[in-house]
């Protein structure tokens, strides 16, 4: 059984690796500054670099900016060049986030796999949100990385095929959550510790999906035959 403590990423900040994405500024929260500046290594997609350089209060420079370099502003690239590794990754069959996560996996191949926090990615354009979810799936399923996506209201991550124990910090959450299938294959799920538990239920778009559920226990159990998106609504004070 895989044991997850997702709220460690909001509390043990110096254990994180952070990736700043190009998203809606309205989704940014004060905790993003602390997460970014405290992380042990910092990466940006090329569009995210614009936000990092121009944001106030001032943020630490990224260690790496990676992407096809079509979004980074020229003055931002020049400002970062003395301190930051700028990597042109032109492959158009992958998103900049997927390329960045693959680079992180390679960067840490001789070390313990890092816990990664994505700042942004699930706000703004809906096609970008879907692309970020696809990258979350790839990073968990193929790269075996532990990745959490933080926006202005939610903490979102992928539960891969198998059994999971998920520890919840009840003070940081409203209690509302969603456990949603997104792979195009049969997804049979057992969930315990929720207001609406499931027992060997088949989940699919067009059928049962567990949105607007509620977490009743401090430790949740989920068993699934295919990957799921798990999204948790956070208390505003958890984002300060």
Compact overview of the structure:
This protein is α/β, with parallel strands linked by helices and 240 residues long.
Topology:
Layout: E1 2-4, H1 8-11, E2 16-20, H2 30-38, E3 41-45, H3 46-54, E4 64-67, H4 74-80, E5 85-88, H5 96-107, E6 115-119, H6 126-141, E7 146-150, E8 154-159, E9 162-167, E10 173-181, E11 187-192, E12 198-203, E13 210-214, E14 219-224, E15 228-234
Parallel strand pairs: 1-9, 2-3, 2-6, 3-4, 4-5, 6-7
Antiparallel strand pairs: 7-8, 8-15, 9-14, 10-13, 10-15, 11-12, 11-14
Helix pairs in contact: 3-4, 5-6
Throw out a few tags for this protein.
single chain; 240 residues; alpha/beta; Rossmann fold; 2 domains; ten-stranded mixed sheet; five-stranded mixed sheet; 6 helices; globular
Please characterize this protein's 3D structure.
The chain is α/β, with parallel strands linked by helices and 240 residues long. It has 2 domains: 2-152, Rossmann fold; 159-238, Thiamin pyrophosphokinase, thiamin-binding domain (Jelly Rolls, Sandwich). It contains 6 helices and 15 strands. The chain has helices at 8-11, 30-38, 46-54, 74-80, 96-107, 126-141, and strands at 2-4, 16-20, 41-45, 64-67, 85-88, 115-119, 146-150, 154-159, 162-167, 173-181, 187-192, 198-203, 210-214, 219-224, 228-234. The strands form 2 sheets. It has a 10-stranded mixed sheet. It has a 5-stranded mixed sheet with strand order 1-9-14-11-12, with no helix packed on it. Helix 6 (126-141) links the parallel strand 6 and strand 7 (146-150). The chain is globular, with a radius of gyration of 18 Å. The protein starts with a strand and ends in a 6-residue tail after the last strand. 39% of the residues are buried. The model has no long low-confidence stretch (mean pLDDT 93).
């Amino acid at each position: 059984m895989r044991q997850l403590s997702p709220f460690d990423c909001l509390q043990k900040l110096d254990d994180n690796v952070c990736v700043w994405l190009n998203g809606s500024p309205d989704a940014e929260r004060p905790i993003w500054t602390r997460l970014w500046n405290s992380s042990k290594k910092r990466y940006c997609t090329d569009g995210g670099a614009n936000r990092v350089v121009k944001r106030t209060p001032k943020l630490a420079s990224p260690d790496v900016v990676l992407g096809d370099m079509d979004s980074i502003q020229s003055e931002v690239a020049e400002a970062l060049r003395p301190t930051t590794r700028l990597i042109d990754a032109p492959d158009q069959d992958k998103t900049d986030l997927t390329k960045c996560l693959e680079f992180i996996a390679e960067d840490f191949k001789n070390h313990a796999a890092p816990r990664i926090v994505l700042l942004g990615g699930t706000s703004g354009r809906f096609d970008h949100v879907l692309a970020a979810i696809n990258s979350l799936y790839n990073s968990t399923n193929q790269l075996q990385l532990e990745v959490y996506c933080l926006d202005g209201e939610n903490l979102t991550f992928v539960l891969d095929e198998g059994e999971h124990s998920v520890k919840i910090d009840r003070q940081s959450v409203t209690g509302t959550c969603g456990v949603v299938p997104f792979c195009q294959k049969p997804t049979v799920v057992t969930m315990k510790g929720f207001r609406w538990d499931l027992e060997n239920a088949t989940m699919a778009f067009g059928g049962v999906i567990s949105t607007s559920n509620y977490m009743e226990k401090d430790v949740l159990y989920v068993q699934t035959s295919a990957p799921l998106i798990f999204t948790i609504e956070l208390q505003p004070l958890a984002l300060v």
